[in-house]
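Tutorial, part two.
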Amino acid sequence: MSLSLNELNRRLAAVGLPFHLTADSAAQLKDAAPRERVLRALARVEDHGDNGARIYLERTLAEAGLSGQVNDPPAAQSTLAEPPSGSERKSRPAPPASDSGPVRPPGEKPTRRPSHHIYGGRAALTFELDETTAGAPTVALDAAIAVGERKYNWSAKARIQFTARELPVVAAVLLGISPECSFSNHGPANDKGFSIAWQAERQSFFVKVWQAKGNLRAVPMAREDAFYAAQLVIRAIQQGSPARLDAAGVIATLRAFYGRG
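Running the prediction step on this input gives:
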């Protein structure tokens, strides 16, 4: 069964890999890896959230010289692809986290920040390294509702930026130092919140993001996904660390403060 370029682009975008392939770049990709192997890896990401397969796809696309061809998807596919993060930067004297990113000067292209995507049956999540409007490092948690098989409405996502006080608490949960955390009163209307909890019986995490009443997005998160989400949170803590802690220093400090029982 043949697969059109539009369909391949749609499937890549749906799993957070919006490499907009053309006929020429598809030929470059074919030279870099067998078509069947690429499609098998894509299916493993779609069906199982296989991070090894995702890394293989990202590496193969880069080796094919396509790393600079990440474009916004066509308008008809805009709700299925990962949108650019953040808007224009505004100067503010205070550094608290908000739920929107900084502004860019007109004409400046958005850069792809380190992120990790987690796909569930009813919703999907993205943990993304981000900045507050004051330029403070943080992590944004996006949650989108499923609108079909492996399709998510990212245009209506709920976005939460972790505050400076929340970052170490979230890190402690993801590292297994604390069992759970829950925070609310995010957003201009103070109606957004999130929780992350370790479920010992399932040996996985459970993440909830909500906005106003009855608008809940809930996604199971495997330890393999938490491994990458934790790295993003640790990186944000490092970037904002007054003592310039390295990753080992951050983890040791988290254990000292949150591992007291």
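The two ends are 57 Å apart (CA to CA). In part three we will examine how such features are distributed along the chain.
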